[in-house]
Design brief:
Helices cover 48% and strands 15% of the residues. It has 15 helices and ten strands. It starts with 7 loop residues before the first helix and ends in a 7-residue tail after the last helix. The model has no long low-confidence stretch (mean pLDDT 92).
């Protein structure tokens, strides 16, 4: 059912402005949900179908995506309001992403950077975006995860995204300094602290069911949880010598869409969902992406993937005639390594959600609250044998590097 304000007249005016055609006329609109339950916790997405006629008489049928915030009575509504995720994404589509696209076009990088915004309505806190599905963009399988070809396409895209934002921030420092300091681990905000601590408790609960893991790591993990958000906050802090840019902030399988050729090979990729974009180190995106989205044999090549992104970023900045701080590859790898605590959180508490394909109730509050329903869902996340194998591998790795000790 369409919102009462989403009338034919409203859509007609938006399309007239977008197409620069005052004679355009909308003949019919209808809609259906664009995502299934549990696929998107941050907003409500509706696919709108529109029959319209251009001023020259051309009759067209198009579909669009209406993005709205979750209802005000949803359990997560207060959380997302605290982090101002909706207004931030509106500004990304309305101002920041178009500026970044123009910067890339200066160096003849003309690949599509985002879905076109038909309208950004700040009064209603909604957007209507072009529907990428008819353009043959689609998500890869979040459960099967990404092979090397899919992974490198995302790294190519992130190199251009990060480079454009570096140049934009150099040209217009006031633009990004206002609204892009809030991230999952912001010390000035509390909402995600409750979420991550709840998720981490579920992780510890799983570790305690495995005697070999419990004996080696349970005590260390209990000590970490006391300082979890502070340690995570340090991971996104940026020093004077660190590279700093706007990151996507939530870059994983479901938030990138691929275009495939006729043989089924991915040829390009497009990011979506910019509610958590923030100013920090570009390697924050790499940790998040590597820890949530890659097949095991691809993630095992992590150092080479950081190198691949580094050279893509360097090449793009050179094409954009960037003059400013840029680290050596050695320094960049160190910047990545210093933020490895993000793997403690993301790989161990986020990834089980992102590859979940069980049957328990996946309502947002069940992700982290210790209600009977919540505990049942959380425990079921760790029934995934691949997740169990990864935990067996990553805990010794992180422990040997010192990331499970107080620091």
């Amino acid at each position: 059912m369409l919102p009462s304000w989403l009338t034919e007249a409203y859509v007609q005016k938006a399309l007239q402005n977008f197409h620069k055609d005052d004679q355009l006329r909308v003949r019919k609109i209808w809609a259906k949900p664009a995502t299934e339950k549990g696929e998107n916790y941050v907003g409500v997405m509706t696919r709108i179908y529109v029959d319209f006629e251009r001023g020259d008489g051309t009759k067209l049928k198009s579909s669009y995506i209406l993005k709205q915030g979750v209802p005000s009575d949803a359990p997560q509504a207060k959380l997302f309001k605290e982090y101002d995720v909706y207004n931030r994404e509106l500004e990304m589509y309305d101002v920041v992403l178009p500026k970044m696209a123009k910067i890339l076009q200066e160096a003849n990088f003309n690949d599509k950077l985002m879905a076109e915004a038909i309208i950004v309505d700040r009064d209603r806190t909604i957007m209507i975006l072009e529907d990428l599905a008819p353009l043959r963009y689609m998500n890869a399988d979040r459960v099967k995860q990404l092979d090397m070809t899919h992974t490198k396409l995302v790294l190519d895209m992130l190199a251009k995204f990060h480079a454009a934002a570096i140049v934009l921030n150099q040209r217009e420092p006031n633009l990004l300094s206002q609204n892009y300091d809030a991230h999952f681990f912001s010390r000035s905000k509390k909402g995600y602290g409750e979420v991550f601590v709840g998720l981490f408790r579920a992780f510890i609960r799983y570790v305690n069911t495995k005697p070999n893991l419990k004996n080696r790591y349970a005590e260390k993990l209990e000590n970490i949880i006391k300082n979890l958000m502070d340690y995570a906050g340090r991971s996104v802090d940026v020093g004077e010598k660190d590279l700093k840019t706007l990151v996507h902030g939530d870059c994983w399988t479901t938030n990138v869409m691929y275009l495939y050729d006729d043989e089924g090979n991915p040829i390009t990729v497009l990011p979506i969902d910019f509610q958590f974009s923030s100013l920090t180190s570009p390697v924050v995106d790499l940790h998040y992406f590597f820890s949530t989205s890659l097949k095991t044999e691809v993630k095992d090549k992590e150092l080479e993937l950081v190198q691949y992104h580094y050279y893509g970023l360097k090449k793009t900045l050179e094409a954009l005639s960037y003059k400013g701080l840029f680290p050596s590859l050695f320094e960049y790898q160190l910047q990545f390594e210093r933020r490895r605590f993000l793997s403690v959180i993301i790989a161990n508490v986020f990834q089980p959600i992102m590859v979940y394909h069980g049957s328990e109730d996946c309502e947002f509050i069940n992700l982290y609250q210790d209600t009977p329903e919540g505990i049942k869902f959380q425990d079921s996340m760790y029934e995934n044998e691949e997740i169990q194998r990864r935990i067996e591998t990553i805990l010794p790795f992180l422990d040997a590097k010192g990331f499970l000790d107080a620091h």
